[in-house]
Amino acid sequence: MKTWKKVVGLSTAVVLLGALTACGGGSKEKTDGSSKKTDENTLLMYQIGDKPDNYDALMDVANKKIEEKTGVKLNIQYIGWGDYKKKMSVIVSSGENYDIAFADSYVPNAQKGAFADLTELAPKFAKDAYDQLDEAYIKGNLVDGKLYAFPVNGNVYSQQVLTFNKQYLDKYNLSIDDIKTYKDAESVLKTFHEKEPNIAAFAIGQGFKAQGDFDFPIGNDYPFAVDLNGDTKKIINQYENKDFMDVLKTMHKWYQAGYIPSDAATSNTEFPLEGNTWFIRQETQGPYDYGDTILSNAAGQELVSKAFTTPLKSSDQARMANFVVANTSKNKEKAVEVLGQINSDPELLNGLVWGIEGEAWEKIPDKDGKIKLLDGYKPNTHLPAWNTGNNKILYTQDIITDEMIKERDESIAKAETSPILGFNFVTSNVKTEMSNIANVMSQYLDGLNTGTVDPEETVPKLKEALANAGYDKVLTEMQKQYDDFLKK
Amino acid sequence: MRKKPVSKVTIRSFNRPVNLFFNVLIAVFALSCVLPFLFVVAISLSNETALAAHGYSFWPQEFSFFGYTYLFDQMQDKIFQALFVTVLVTVVGTLINSTATSLYAYVISRSNFPFRRFFTVFCLITMLFSPGMVANYLVMTNLLQLKDTIWALILPMAVSPFNIIVMRTFFKRSVSDSIIESARIDGASEMRIFIQIVLPLAVPGIATISLFAALGYWNDWFNALLYIQKDSLVPLQYLLMKIQNNIQYLTQNAGASSQLSGGMAAIPGESARMAIVVISTLPIAISYPFFQKYFVKGLTIGGVKE
């Protein structure tokens, strides 16, 4: 009895206290919140990834430069890789106030009107940076003829490569000179698997997609593709395409031979680049990877890649790292100005991407745009290049020669542009069918792509399930929209 | 048909084979609950390379405390901060939740309370219709301005309608009107009746809903995902979820860009992740036995009429 009285008394007291502090805290928060909002001079930017350990130091340097030029400061809020999608969708649908964000689901959100229209703002307030963008970036990001994003100028084209762990190539004396397709890699895989049966020969897991010369109007989770080696005016189902079928058969053969981990369809096992738990992996590379330089750097060991698709400027690449300005933002012009500065001011951008000058790196005298890394260059003390700003104005280390840079620019000029660059499929008439198709695909994707199931048996089943889901209706609609798009 | 002579009356008991069958069934069920956890413990004590080579096993192939040492070397500040937040939220939240729930439930359990029907329906409606995430988000951030405060982790779960209904039935069953009547005749006030007479009788029920609440708070990570951005307020479960989500994102986008992997911070290995799971589940698992004795009485929504 007595003790209960005490407990109840105590808990009531706690609750009351809680209520008080809640109100107190709430009101304090209110003033904070409103001061944040009324603080006209700080722009809020959401960015994907992990906050760097020395964020404050980095931003101190950067904000000095930004404030000098634009009169505002930048505050970057980081949201983790895996949480970004969820959190941004809540922020967008609740109409919360922010200024700049790394775009998530760019096209649907742009169609909804969540982002500010930058068609006129970008060339006006961020002229320098805008002029440096490859044309494919603009074309690939137009939604209903308007530009809603400021893309990061970087890997405008990409190609799929098979990346080999060089330590094993040397150890077992394997040659990869004439590998141009998945099939060509079979003999090295075989040799390797005999020697090292416990190491993942072809290291893939859940979410892996077998690749070919295709581009996908709504992403490769869906069975809609354009065959780049065939009739590019037609949208097809890649699972009905002979070349792709051969690729799937190859995967299945590899799976049965044990080159692919037996739990690939469901596993989230990581195969660290720097590790030795893998022999071949699939990667995507573009011009700013300078061959295998960036990859080998990230791995801390030498890796060799062989491309098996043609370099392609696709919508995916154009939207790789888009920055958008919120429609709810009160400082749209300033936001564009800041984006423009990040993408055109080498001092500012390199201070973010390489870290703090003098601590992490220093310029090499009399060599323009070349730097030397110092001991202070540590992981997580600088921002990633691909989603920060214009790669073209980044300083390079000495290992990147002038030839490489020349080659990079030539390869960009040479790369093929995807026929569907800038094509956005409007799903409003076929919403039900689309979600049916998504459900069907989620059952089959991982099994087929990782070679776990036999494509000869499964693909017909997939086709049947797709037909029941209303595939033809969607295909007709997409083809119609695509024809209209091609006429323009 | 001759009737069998009755030798023994056994009410409320199964005959032997049936009894054995049910025992085996329950044992299998119990094992299926315990084994995964043992599995996790085993993985957390395994050597990372052995894991990659031999896969998982119930007995670690090669013992190593690397997972735990990694946690205490690399992530010490984060883990302890998160553990503190989780414990704080659980304790304060459980107190608030059990207080609010029992008060509400007691009031609507009393037959002489005039607005009984209204408040019962009011509570049921919140249970049956959920406004959806965005509406919740708007209330929490715009209306209450609770973004990035500890209250954002406590208040969304401060009252649970289902527990209110359970408690209401419990009060109705375990506290008869006659006791309340007689206390009233002896001159006790409403508050005194509740605290001195009703509560002691309802201890099993309160213990049960407190456990539910504590579990809910301990395991909650979604509110943290929505409302918490400060590192200092991240609870343990969300820390784990973050790591898991990052790994998933990375493997799903493996090969999306080599630059992506370059910009990633190091991710703890399998055994370290499982070590976090162990650390985050053990405390609440250990607190179970303390509530055990109340369970049998408390967990029935009840169908007995007086």
Automatic annotation (TrEMBL), chain A:
Pfam family, one: SBP_bac_8
Stored InterPro entries: Bact_solute-bd_prot1 (IPR050490), DUF3502 (IPR022627), SBP (IPR006059)
Every DUF3502 domain range: 419-487
Residues spanning the signal sequence: 1-24
Protein name, entry field: ABC transporter substrate-binding protein
Keywords associated with the record: Signal
Domain of life: Bacteria
PROSITE patterns the UniProt entry points to: PROKAR_LIPOPROTEIN
Protein's organism: Enterococcus haemoperoxidus ATCC BAA-382
Automatic annotation (TrEMBL), chain B:
Membrane topology: Multi-pass membrane protein
PROSITE patterns assigned to the protein according to its UniProt record, in alphabetical order: ABC_TM1, PROKAR_LIPOPROTEIN
Gene3D superfamilies: MetI-like (1.10.3720.10)
KW Cell division (keyword) present: no
Principal location listed in the UniProt entry: membrane
Gene Ontology BP terms: transmembrane transport
Membrane spanning stretches: 20-45, 79-106, 118-138, 150-171, 192-218, 272-291
Protein localization: Cell membrane
Gene Ontology cellular component annotations, sorted alphabetically: plasma membrane
Name by which UniProt lists this protein: ABC transporter permease
Organism: Enterococcus haemoperoxidus ATCC BAA-382
Biological classification of the source: Bacteria, Bacillati, Bacillota, Bacilli, Lactobacillales
